[in-house]
Amino acid sequence: MRDGLDTYREQVERAAELDEQIERTD
């Protein structure tokens, strides 16, 4: 369970970072 949550959190954090980068580029 922990591993799954960790990977999920990592994906969410990465997605948030990408969103921020896209917003900055725009």
Provide a quick synopsis of the model:
With 26 residues, the chain is an all-alpha fold. It is 92% helix and 0% strand. The model has no long low-confidence stretch (mean pLDDT 88).
Can you describe this structure?
This is Restriction endonuclease. Keywords: Endonuclease, Hydrolase, Nuclease. Residues 1-26 are annotated as: Disordered. One of its GO terms (molecular function) is endonuclease activity. This protein is mainly alpha-helical. It has one helix spanning 2-25. It is rod-shaped and about 35 Å long. The model has no long low-confidence stretch (mean pLDDT 88).
User: What kind of assembly state do the chains in view correspond to?
Assistant: single chain
Q: Estimate the mean pLDDT confidence.
A: 88
Element order: H for helix, E for strand: H
Query: Rg to the nearest angstrom?
Result: 11 Å
Shape: rod-shaped
Helix content: over 70%
Secondary structure class reads mainly alpha
- How is the biggest beta sheet arranged? none
Number of helices: 1
Amount of beta strand = under 5%
Descriptive key words:
26 residues; mainly alpha; 1 helix; 0% strand; rod-shaped; endonuclease; nuclease
What layout of secondary structure does this protein have?
Layout: H1 2-25
